[in-house]
Amino acid sequence: MRSTMQDVPLSIADLVRYGTTVHGRARVVTWTGDAANPRRSTLAEVGARAARLAHALRGLGVTGDQRVATFQWNNQEHLEAYFAVPAMGAVLHTLNIRLHPDQVVYIADHAEDHVVIVDASLLPLFAPILPRLRTVRHVVVSGGGPADLGALAAEGVAVHSYEELLAGRPDTFDWPAGDERDAAAMCYTSGTTGAPKGVAYSHRSIYLHSMQVCMTDGKALSQGDTALAVVPMFHAMSWGLPYAALMVGASLLLPDRFLQPGPLADMIQAERPTIAAAVPTIWQGVLQELEAAPRDVSSLHRVVVGGMACPPSLMRRFEELYGIPVLHAWGMTETSPLGSIARPPADSEGEERWAYRLSQGRLPASVHGRLIGADGRPVPHDGSGVGELEVRGPWITGAYHRDDAPERFHDGWLRTGDVGTLTPDGFLRLTDRAKDVIKSGGEWISSVELENQVMSHPAVAEAAVVAVPDPTWDERPLVAVILKDGAVAEAAELRAFLAGRVPRWQLPEYWTFVDEVPKTSVGKFDKKVLRTRHAEGGLKVAEVRG
Amino acid sequence: MRSTMQDVPLSIADLVRYGTTVHGRARVVTWTGDAANPRRSTLAEVGARAARLAHALRGLGVTGDQRVATFQWNNQEHLEAYFAVPAMGAVLHTLNIRLHPDQVVYIADHAEDHVVIVDASLLPLFAPILPRLRTVRHVVVSGGGPADLGALAAEGVAVHSYEELLAGRPDTFDWPAGDERDAAAMCYTSGTTGAPKGVAYSHRSIYLHSMQVCMTDGKALSQGDTALAVVPMFHAMSWGLPYAALMVGASLLLPDRFLQPGPLADMIQAERPTIAAAVPTIWQGVLQELEAAPRDVSSLHRVVVGGMACPPSLMRRFEELYGIPVLHAWGMTETSPLGSIARPPADSEGEERWAYRLSQGRLPASVHGRLIGADGRPVPHDGSGVGELEVRGPWITGAYHRDDAPERFHDGWLRTGDVGTLTPDGFLRLTDRAKDVIKSGGEWISSVELENQVMSHPAVAEAAVVAVPDPTWDERPLVAVILKDGAVAEAAELRAFLAGRVPRWQLPEYWTFVDEVPKTSVGKFDKKVLRTRHAEGGLKVAEVRG
Ligand SMILES: Nc1ncnc2c1ncn2[C@@H]1O[C@H](COP(=O)(O)O)[C@@H](O)[C@H]1O
């Protein structure tokens, strides 16, 4: 029997229409580096400018589902593209500005980008790439002056100034209704092996994901919030904050290129966000900055941390020093990204509560999860059985763009490549990436667990653990340590510190002290680089036993 | 371009699978009248019993989209039907136990109910109806004993005991995945003119609506909540609480037949719900009860009020006496029902904030609204233009079951029959039902506004205003007043009280004092009855002028 319900598609067009009118007063603030003069706008104004952008893009031949790419920081113009491109029926493709030029070329070609919108400040990076792009016909430069435009040249490509393109166009656009399963936005992930892979979000998936972000057991985003989106808008849609803000009328604080701890602390003090989202490495920096030069961060009701495991010390320090709860979340580009979030059960207390909070969190109703063991068989959700997590749901990818990658899927479920346990009450605890697990004498050692333990030592700022070949045990852990400024510690001392905290057989023999841990384009520990450096003899390794 | 997202339908089967496992510990408490001994269960147990019920229903021929009707209070068994029936692919039909028998017969026939589950305590109502039902083949009696079963008889109908039917069946059921646009549940509304009309909710609409209920700007339902669902499960799906609770693992407190102020106050004190939902008339009674015999109601974080306009005095008293915020919501059976909810803008203060809270609230992104004036033309959303509200969205009905009722729709939008204004920031203020507006000398007088003003007089317990014919002005308001116990007030005094509070030309001349205002089956003022009584000369009317 059919229901009598209206057949109204979930669409970004409707979100734009709603958010930019009903919530037109919500603020959109872009940081400029000058605390007294950020760029201030509103959802209404961003909506009007998005309409102009849509008219302009129609003029550049974006009449259907062409890909409009962005090569931008988190700023107002990037948000305008977020609104205009999917709402007009085209596909927004957020290029990752931190990738190697070869990868950017590969990705833009693979997605068949027709237009690229580029921040003038990123032209030094983009200009050398442009002549290599095969499908791009228009480059639109936001910010900057005539000289910037002149510096750009490529055969068959027209170069435009963003502001000139928008000038004089109508402030409204008749955002069309489309099929909710059509692509709205794309993001490539290099987190997988092999060539980067494209995930194409649908209007439906973005809409549903936005609702989840606004659910009280999600990120609880609401009209009273101001969200500081540190996580890049080219990284898994800034974890869903821009569209969720549009859905409920939250204000947005966008850091532009000012991603260093100092400016971040400044903007928190000046603009008083209530929620902020970033990878742990960013928060480590902000905490150090606040210790060195205190700021008022009391506006923050919660801080969302994800993208890699949240070091317990980070969570404790935020809470003990500033009374700000850290919400640990897990997700992937492939999962839109909200996969799980660590809100402890209401009746949990003390250390049990901490354990829940430090887990990767609970999968919500829309993200079905299961564990598959090394033998390909399901592992029970008993909190101790370890397996690779597979997920399924309306905002989880079921393929990659023009690349079916069957090895990444299993009967319609996404194989996450993450390894861990699930409790009966739905909490995920990751012990590792499938490829980062250390197999020592036939047993698994969790690199993440070791990192967390090492980082809880007072002298340690950061730590990363990788597997290195070992004649006896096949693999053993190598710990790369960054000490805090001025702090001193020997490998032997750190190893002694670990004794009692991890099983004896897991105690690492191999230690190296480094000035920085290599990071990926989105700020996670880049273990691939660490492994290569070690293989090439580029690390000074101390060996400690006993 | 197609997205790469998985094509996973939104389904109640998935909600049941998720909520009854991951949130299996959430409590389901059914009141028994004895504060020391309510019936205690959990979502896990309700899930297991729902599985048994599904197996049993298969045995009764429920193999496809047959309608399984309920004639039940809000209790655990009713919840079991809520879970089992849609999750097994059939259609749950909640019969309104307060309707006239003729209407119940009409509705059950129209929906073609195959099975009816009846609470034993409702058999005196149901037994005389049964022989008149044409499509029902099985009656399942929950509670009660052999004598109850024996009292039921009708040609071609088998009578079963609920517990006997469930006994020995498997605790799990392989809930099938279906098309998200198929019907999951039905509810008839008698709020419209003519015959009752059926609304058939889809899996999709119920799923999306549940997410909205759990959004922070919705009812903010979360895993930490215990929800007291006073609003009947046969009235617009108990405002969405049961399925939303399943989605996030909130506990449920179900009052069964104990809907009087005393037991309600008792169960709040004993079971400490954090949220409770009911029509204003119920809350009026609870407040009076609490005044007479105080209870501890401090567990309530908020109280949801809807179904009719919330009298300002009710909101103020809840807040001033108990510190409990009242959330005013508007909706209809046709809107699932969450249409709008009055969360004031974060930066509003003082009286402005009160005005926002007393409005019908803000339409969320998924409920598109517009106003159509008496001339059929759109009215601007400027907070003053008055028109009939039309709504559109994924959980709004677009037809009635086997009854297209084209007069109730307008280019795909539902005509709500409610009249009012919309502000630029999306807040709805209803001034009346289209049919309750008083047309006096070519101008509209809002019956609701008058009622609220009269009810703010200290001697008045309740008031209802209807239009009565008037030789000069076409229509004039008649006020029906119930005085508080022991209070005294004359019509002239009440009229004088209104002077200055409403425009002079709106001051009512016609007053009547009654012992009770007739209520509809769901507790709203029944103005039809009042009008008829007046037309038949059944009211003693005082006339005051000057
Ligand atoms: N909270 C977390 N804890 C541990 N690993 C995480 C967490 N969040 C994300 N990740 C890792 O980041 C991957 C997704 O990377 P990306 O697609 O770049 O966002 C996941 O598959 C995990 O390996």
UniProtKB/TrEMBL annotation, chains A, B:
Keywords linked to the UniProt accession: Ligase
Start and end residues of each AMP-binding enzyme C-terminal domain: 449-524
Entry EC no(s): 6.2.1.-
An example molecular function term from Gene Ontology annotations: ligase activity, forming carbon-sulfur bonds
InterPro entries assigned: AMP-bd_C, AMP-bd_C_sf, AMP-binding_CS, AMP-dep_synth/lig_dom, ANL_N_sf, ATP-dep_AMP-bd_enzyme
Enzyme class: ligase
Family assignment from sequence similarity: Belongs to the ATP-dependent AMP-binding enzyme family.
Protein name per UniProt: Fatty-acyl-CoA synthase
Annotated organism of origin: Streptomonospora nanhaiensis
